[in-house]
Design goal:
Helix content is 81%, strand content 0%. It is built from 17 helices and no strands. The protein has one domain: MFS general substrate transporter like domains (Growth Hormone, Chain: A), CATH 1.20.1250. Helix 5 packs antiparallel against helix 9. The relative contact order is 0.15. By secondary structure, the protein is mainly alpha-helical. The longest helix is centred in the last third of the chain and has 68 residues.
Length: 397
């Protein structure tokens, strides 16, 4: 099969799967009403989903280096379908929180697909391949919020989980017959594979740097999306979950940004592109804070936030995939575990800020996180290198 068609199919598989992580966001207010649960307890749903995803990345994604990738992808899709079915049938909020953890743990197919795509293309086309597959992921995130908001408003929050479970079975069947086989690149036992993650972290300075920036970027993103449904539901806006989901539509800009950022990362300094993304993300919270209840401000802010986060994400991944191919799955594991730990912390901080200080608190906390990330990037790009050159000059005197 033509490589471009294969990448397109991978984008669809990744997009359909990553949606499972985001279905809950427009539904949080509905779930709170359904179980008569407080905001802070319902806020555990997206947090546990992201913690579960981080655990799944740590435990399962490294298997992409030692197992046949297509079989691993199909197995995880079946497991995800079962976790979604459990969520749909949850009798209480505690069961739904546990099911959300399981959904996160099993929804790791997108992070198996991305290094799979990189494996299939030439080195000079890696940024473009990452951008193509990631654009599918971003479209999946957008459609997840829209679909979830619509289904929740018209059929109840459980319906979306039943739908998603069936979709995973269908995607699993398609993957079985369409995706190419890929032999493992490394011969290691599972315990040694997991232990080798420490060695990868220790040896790869670039990985440590981009993992920290990615975590902080996604923390800012999660601070917004974990509180948006409560903000829109509150007075004076009083919007439904369907409207909350429709805000995801403007995030389609992120999908466009993925393709553009991937190509820019192939041609320009990807660290500068990453820095640009953090600047754009930071500006979104200035808009949210200043425009507040204005609809145009919310729309513009969401566009800027998605554009900034996805630009940072693509440029970060282009950097780590410039490292040795035989450790790509483990590189992706370390990066994405950090990314979603940052997201989980962002969800927690966002809900705490909303409960304590409402919308002003949410915007302030997010800005603090993103400006901190910007400071770290500035240090690694513009300050550390000249200081090292100065030190070397002194040593040679």
């Amino acid at each position: 099969m033509d490589i471009n068609k294969t990448l397109l199919i991978m984008a669809v598989v990744g997009g359909a799967t990553v949606a499972n992580l985001y279905y809950n966001q427009p539904l949080l207010a509905l779930i709170a009403e359904s179980f008569h649960a407080p905001t802070q307890q319902v806020g555990l749903i997206p947090m546990m989903t992201q913690i579960g995803y981080a655990l799944g990345l740590l435990l399962f994604v490294p298997l992409g280096d030692i197992l046949e990738r297509r079989r691993l992808i199909v197995t995880m899709l079946i497991a995800t379908a079962l976790a979604l079915l459990t969520a749909a049938m949850s009798p209480n909020i505690a069961c739904l929180i546990i099911a959300s953890l399981l959904i996160g743990m099993t929804t790791i197919v997108p992070q198996l697909v991305v290094p799979f795509a990189v494996f299939l293309v030439e080195p000079e086309k890696r940024g473009k391949a990452v951008g193509t597959v990631m654009s599918g992921l971003f479209i999946g995130i957008v459609l997840a919020r829209i679909t979830s908001g619509f289904v929740g408003a018209n059929f109840g929050w459980r319906a979306i989980y039943f739908f998603a479970s069936g979709l995973m079975i269908f995607i699993g069947l398609v993957s079985t017959f369409v995706l190419p086989k890929a032999k493992p690149s490394v011969t290691l036992s599972y315990p040694k594979l997991i232990l080798s993650l420490g060695e990868v972290i220790r040896e790869q300075l670039l990985l440590r740097q981009v993992a920290l920036i990615g975590a902080m970027s996604f923390a800012g993103y999660s601070i917004f999306w974990s509180t948006m449904a409560f903000f829109l539901k509150a007075q004076p806006l009083n919007y439904s979950s369907q409207v909350a989901g429709m805000f995801g539509l403007v995030g389609i800009v992120g999908a466009i940004a993925a393709v553009v950022a991937g190509r820019m990362a192939d041609r320009k300094n990807p660290r500068l592109i990453s820095m640009l993304g953090v600047v754009i993300s930071s500006s979104s919270f200035l808009v949210f804070s200043l425009a507040r209840y204005e609809l145009w401000g919310l729309i513009l802010g969401v566009i800027l936030l998605d554009l900034g986060v996805q630009t940072t994400q693509i440029s970060n991944q282009a950097q780590i995939y410039s490292l040795p191919a035989k450790i790509h799955s483990r590189l992706n594991t370390v990066y994405m575990v950090s990314y979603f730990v940052g997201g989980a912390m962002g969800s927690y901080c966002g809900n705490y800020a909303w409960s304590s200080w409402q919308w002003n608190g949410v915007c302030t906390v997010a800005l603090f996180v993103l400006v901190s990330a910007l400071s770290i990037l500035y240090f690694t790009i513009f300050w550390k290198k000249p200081q090292q050159q100065l030190l070397n000059a002194r040593l040679t005197r």
